[in-house]
Amino acid sequence: MTSPPPRPSGGRVPPALITNGVIAAIFFAIPLALIIMLDLDPEGWFIVAVLAALGVLIVEHEIVAPPRRGRRMLLKAQESYARAEAGAGAASAAAARIPTGDAHGAQVLKRLRWYEGRRRETGEVLAGLGRMRWIDWHDPALSEAAAKLSDDVSGLSAINDAVRNAAALLTRAPGWEDAWENECGPLREDLDIFRELCQEVGDEAPAAPPIADSELGWARACGARLTALRAQLASGALPPGAALDELDAMAAEIRARADALARRALAAEAPPGEEAGLAHYREYIGTWKLPDDDDRYAYSGTWQDDDETGASPAAGENGERAAVSYNPAATIRLHDYSPGIRVAGIRWRGLATASQYSSPIERILDAYLQSRSTGKE
């Protein structure tokens, strides 16, 4: 739940401001005392200058900066809230077009209803923060409330985008092509990481290159399948819900293949009788529990065009691979940081299990690299 609206300090000075003020005063008082009481040599003046500089840094970082950071965060939240409010009507109209019988649409609607129930409360908290004075921003509790509010408001705006994408894609309304490409973003980003994992494995494990080459071939086929699905959607040969189901299965297969490749590579790289690297990997991957994982990974919102021929519209000049951007927060399918994920009713059921869920396989790559280093020690 959103925190209660914060209250002004009522003239009370936050303890943190008193503490930082005393520390800063000490760093100014000592140099002043040295100047008055001693005939300073060059080394003494250097010490005075250093202490004074430290005092200035403390004043800037601990006294001046907190209100500035808080106000900046508040302004960003106010802008996001204004966008969310402006888009609320369009989102409601779009929500009415989402087929209630589609599982993907149902979880988007569930997330939207949750945010709609919080919108008024979030607005009250936002208004309360707007009444805070300069001195109030030195209260750590207020900074925490502002950070939490920023996340809530960001989710309000993002869920509107997800609803519009769901309405467009699930009914093949105008704009469905963009919604589909955005939906493919997390999988294409995972495919980028999968190729990087294949490269790492091929470079490191003498016995692994044939396996890595085979997996690279599968990754190319997977990318081509995403393009083919769009064509099937356009022709009407494949219902949108079924296309999203295929993304569910593909996301699970990417994770499963990445996990299997990392395990095979670590086993191949280890000296006879040694399993330290593989044991480390198993332990790390075993902690992958979502969405309440403290070690969640976020999608960056960018993937590299994988059409090496340069024929793709996303390819850059001279056929080089070009960066393609998408909005992870606006996807219909879930990922670790989807707005309202905890109320969606969809649960992470395992690394290789298909569900309306993508989780960055960058975690597998990092686990492999760390485990490989552990195995060498």
From TrEMBL:
It holds the Pfam family DUF5129. Residues 48-247 form the DUF5129 domain. Keywords: Membrane, Transmembrane, Transmembrane helix. Residues 299-320 are annotated as: Disordered. The chain crosses the membrane at residues 17-38, 44-64. This is DUF5129 domain-containing protein. It comes from Actinomyces gaoshouyii.
